[in-house]
Design a protein that fits this description.
By secondary structure, the protein is α+β, with helices and mostly antiparallel strands. It has one domain. It is 29% helix and 33% strand. The longest helix has 51 residues.
């Protein structure tokens, strides 16, 4: 005769030995999971905050260098197949404009480009106004309707601030070569300081200082 009780007791015993989670264990798991989520969230927040800060600083440097490059090598004027780059390098004459808190330094540079006889009044003027470097120009006798924003760009005005933009004679007091009598301005020193707000009341700064010279000057630098 088969003893069914013998076979029924084993599964029942096995079921009794399988314990479930207690309330305390469930609460502990919940707390640990919450802490891990919070820690991960804070880590991601710090990562993205640092990324935005670095990205803003890189963009500030890129835009500032682009501005200086326009000043040196020329801002493109004209259209189609008649584009010309008018800057310090290609200038026929240079004139420092505006004033700053330092004697002998202005906050703008007016450039006379290589001109054709029929358009002797063409010019390109880079200058600081309301903490924005703007560019105004006349090309082929036609002046641009409104001076253009060069640095910072319109979209960046709320967080990028120019602290100073100064232009001076790079050869003042014969710093580069001995001046000839009545020698025209042919090399300039450009200083650009700016900052970007990377987060609330937190800023990163740039301070660029460079010398630019006309290629068409009467003599090369260093030659007396």
């Amino acid at each position: 005769m088969i003893n069914y009780r013998k076979y029924l007791k084993a599964p029942v015993a096995r079921l009794k030995s399988q314990k479930g989670f207690t309330l305390i264990e469930l609460i502990s798991v919940g707390i640990i999971s919450s802490l891990l989520i919070v820690i991960a969230g804070v880590g991601l927040s710090v990562f993205f905050s640092k990324y935005q800060e670095i990205n803003a600083f890189v963009e500030l440097q890129k835009d500032a260098l682009e501005c200086l490059n326009y000043l040196k090598n020329g801002y493109n004027v004209g259209s189609g197949g008649y584009i010309q780059f008018n800057g310090v390098a290609s200038a026929k004459a240079l004139e420092i404009t505006g004033r700053t808190d330092e004697a002998g330094k202005g906050n703008g540079l007016k450039i006379t480009p290589p001109f054709m006889e029929e358009f002797p009044n063409d010019f390109v003027h880079f200058y600081l106004q309301d903490k924005i470097i703007r560019v105004n120009y006349m090309y082929n006798g036609v002046q641009v309707n409104t001076p253009l924003y060069l640095f910072p760009k319109r979209a960046e005005r709320s967080r990028v601030t120019i602290e100073s933009f100064k232009v001076s004679d790079a050869n003042a007091y014969s710093a580069l070569f001995v001046n000839k009598i009545d020698e025209p301005l042919c090399a300039v020193n450009v200083e650009l300081k700016a900052k970007v707000e990377t987060s609330k009341n937190k800023f990163r700064y740039i301070n660029f200082n460079t010398v630019m010279a006309m290629k068409n000057m009467s003599r090369p630098l260093g030659v007396k």
